[in-house]
User: Fold this.
Amino acid sequence: MTTLAPALSIRLFPRAANWLRNLALIFAGSLLVAAFAQIEIPTQPVPITGQTFAVLLVGALLGSKRGAAAMVAYIAQGALGLPFFAGGASGMGILSGATAGYLLGFVGAAYAVGWLAERGLERSVRTSILPFLVGTVIIYVFGVAWLSILLMSFSKAIQFGLLPFLVGDLIKLIAAAIALPSAWQFMK
Assistant:
């Protein structure tokens, strides 16, 4: 089974080389996450952003390998100085700051969501909640684990790196679970 973006790209650009389509999809995925990173509610030490919604979508749209590659590209672009991280931040310092664990979690989440989407779980509202829930949990595990090291306290990491995000991430998860099956229906 394929995911939505590769299926759509083949339909729209049937003569394009496969490697070129893949590169374009990966780049577009990284740009989507960068755009959603600019939707920010500043909180300390980790801001609330639209990134997680974009990560879930990119994983589901691109599949496991392309989704993970898009996250690696996104992190590399931001680390190299493009204003892609939350609030237009950039640079290598972000990769050792409070959000580093979440960024690393983006790679794993996109891969896992993509892997589940490659099995067709994002095509129905009834089943699409599972990939997005798995992706969200992966982001939290990496993010809170890293934050607990930085803060030297697991309870503070939960207090500042998990609890403020639960309601917003639940909304993002539901929105993604509705968006992807709707997009598949539209494509048919």
